[in-house]
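Students often ask why we bother encoding 3D structure as a string. The short answer is that it lets us treat folding as translation between two languages. Here is a chain of 230 residues written in the first language.
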Amino acid sequence: MTILLYDLVGTDRSRPFSPHCWKVAFALAHKGLAYESVPTPFTAVKGVEQGVCGTVPVIRDGERVVGDSFAIALYLEETYPDRPSLFGGEGGKAAARFIERWSQLTVHPFLGAAVLMDIHDRLDPADQAHFRTTREARFGKPIEEVPVGRDAGLDAFRAKLEPLRSMLSVQPFIGGETALFSDYIVASAFQWARVISPYPVLAADDPVAMWFERCLDLHSGLGRSVSAAA
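And here it is in the second language, the structure alphabet:
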């Protein structure tokens, strides 16, 4: 039975953009599992699977419903042990937890602020109203003001990626010679920005950008199945 992945979308239902949903899409592809993306706008999230999770991503695998990207990855690892591992063992799971927290604390804050208005502008009117209300509560200011300093902060953001850049000088992926869920965690953050905004968050000659390009090529070019925002 095909797995259902509830995928966050805007006006264009063919362009899922949530970094957390992209983690799951990559994880499903890594496991070689067929899935169907269910386009889900912001205002429909609360009704997904009778609201059992309240956020996306959510997957339905037969009778099982699982939410939260990391919990979904663990579920896939445990349920389909005969397929390629997402973690490469218990140590890989622990390392992925660290990578997830690093990404959430280092990568997401800048990207989320930098592309905030791009997200808003690609939503349906009802979703725009929801997005404005929730994000203005989060940032404590009108959403138009949030990305104002992105150019001034870009160099500092790129500098924070130096640990990743340095590691990529000795191996092609965070997972080593091949990508693991740790790669999908970080690559999905950059995919979020790539799909929703033309803002250049990485320099073309940055080793991080080159790694991201390799990630986009994985699984028959899954990441490239959605074109970059123009």
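Translate back mentally: The chain has nine helices and four strands. Keep this in mind for the problem set.
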